[in-house]
Amino acid sequence: MSRRIARIFLLVPAALLLLVGGLTAWLVATESGTRWLFARAESVLPPELQIGAASGTLLDGIAIAGGGWTDEKQRVGVRRLEVEIELLPILRRKVKIVRLNLQDVEVHVVAGATSTSPAEPFSLELPIELIVDDATATNIQVSSGEDRFDIERVALAGQLAGSNLKITRLV
Known about the structure:
This protein is about 25% helix and about 50% strand.
């Protein structure tokens, strides 16, 4: 009887570990897991943020077809966003973006949207460390009222830890 109880005490944690491992693999290594995560995330994101259809996996990289941010002061749109991150550094409170590619970016600042009241100080301080190995944005259009300028391509790499910003490449 005691062997049977001991076996149950060993099998239950093993079964739970297998279940958690299988669920984690499904979330990070399958497109259906990625779509499920995005569906859960949309409910907690601000309404100003729109996210298009996602494809790919957290393990191999995600592509998002369309998305943006719209509020009373600006409108930002991206036709396609591709991102590849390393997952293990997240356990150490680091987000490591291996590759980020933004295609056809439109930024429109509403004319007269600037406030006459003093702005609060701007801070880049994040509770995590952000590392970007390779980020590229192509076909960028920035406009405000009648003014508009186009940027063909911007590429950068850098790191943000606390309030320390280090840009290692800007082209």
